[in-house]
């Protein structure tokens, strides 16, 4: 077997392995929905479920991008293109999170007359 | 005129043109889907308490479709590796599985959509609400009502509907109208897991209905963003399937004439396909679980 053919055979094994990891990750996400300890109706339960689900999705996405799309070993130009994209994507998500302050009930509440943030005092103080 | 750098890399970029092109396209796609995810976050956190229609999705079906797309991602990269190893028959087999998975995904999704279009929520004038299905008779034949709304009731002059309620669920917590007897409620719960149509429908007067809506974008903000994002993703699946099918059915001629060019085309098509998979990996938990 030539080195080239050997390399491809090795890559095929890696692709199958990554496929299995992705399937297991999906099962784990499915299990989150059936995990009774996480109560999605409660804020803490929703926070745990959100963090866990997004973490699993990010790891899975990392495998797809890194291995299947060969981003782990690509040319400089592609890294530049995706680097710029990542920068703007993070910027957009950052603005999204920042914008949550404008939604009633979320983040800071502002006084209609003064426009200043309303600081809630703890009860009994 | 020959198109330059279809197989050989450009000296300045180190890439053949189509590869740089697809990555630039994918960069724009990241921003497109990113904008929709951003909209989702704002709608989600901005929803009034209890107003987000959570728990109405079929999670096992979503999981199955995720499996299907992951399998297709593995087979498309295997198809490319097969061409690299000069194994055309393996490439063809892998591509057949990939396209079958793409079509399978779309078929499952269309059934899922159809089920939503005949699944209803009814808001009563006394404040109660429930989810379920509506059946009606047309020429002696029992049919499912698709895409009915409050307007349909007045337009068709329907005086009452035969509503088969779901078992109490996270969204509609069993505020049945009229209130069910203990036996009726047990019956609904018993059959809910297997088939909601086993129990008798409840007759609801149209005059008592405040609002009737199928699970369509107009139902709620959740379904509006759900249909927008999954339909956009579905279009990408369809587009990818068409391109990959072209390479499957017309690829042999190019393989004979210029094998490297076909290999590169499969790499480019595969990159798009992996991106489609990547988007679904995030869509699945966001829409079905959270």
Written overview of the protein:
The complex is a heterodimer of chains A (125) and B (290). The N and C termini of chain A lie far apart (79 Å). The mean pLDDT of chain A is 82. Helix content of chain A is 66%, strand content 0%. Chain A is mostly helical and 125 residues long. The termini of chain B are far apart. In chain B, strands 1, 2, 3, 4, 5 and 6 form a six-stranded antiparallel β-sheet that branches. With 290 residues, chain B is an alpha+beta fold. Chain B folds into two domains: 17-43 and 55-116 and 221-289, Four Helix Bundle (Hemerythrin (Met), subunit A); 119-214, no CATH class. The model of chain B has no long low-confidence stretch (mean pLDDT 89). Chain B is 59% helix and 12% strand. Chains A and B meet through helix 1, helix 2 and helix 3 of A and helix 1, helix 2 and helix 7 of B.
Describe the sheet with the most strands of chain B. Answer: 6 strands, antiparallel
The 3D shape of chain A can be described as flat
- Arithmetic mean pLDDT of chain A: 82
How many separate domains make up the residues of chain B? 2
Mean pLDDT of chain B: 89
End-to-end separation of chain A: 79 Å
The CATH superfamily of the largest domain in chain B turns out to be Cytochrome c oxidase, subunit III, four-helix bundle
Topology of this protein?
The complex is a heterodimer of chains A (125) and B (290).
Chain A: H1 3-34, H2 43-68, H3 76-99
Chain B: H1 17-46, H2 59-84, H3 88-117, E1 119-124, E2 129-138, E3 141-144, H4 150-155, E4 160-165, H5 182-192, E5 202-205, E6 209-214, H6 221-257, H7 259-289
Antiparallel strand pairs in B: 1-2, 1-6, 2-3, 2-4, 4-5
Helix pairs in contact in B: 1-6, 1-7, 2-3, 2-7, 3-6, 6-7
Describe what is shown at a glance.
The complex is a heterodimer of chains A (about 120) and B (about 290). Chain A is mostly helical and about 120 residues long. Chain A has helices spanning about 5-35, 45-70, 75-100.
